[in-house]
Amino acid sequence: MKEENKHLINKLFHNKTIRTIWDKNEDKYYISVVDIVGALTESKDARHYWNVLKSRLSKRSK
Fold it and tell me: What is the pTM of this model?
């Protein structure tokens, strides 16, 4: 994805900022999973929460 083809859009969800990038060539949004996890769980360390969750899900699928 080229820099000139993407636009950063900050959206609010439950009063939390969600980083979103719009790629006009692909007509697609890319949304930060860490921001969504932080908004939904109200976790103080959303990145750590996501890493633990991702690890657990990966172990289950094996």
Answer: 0.68
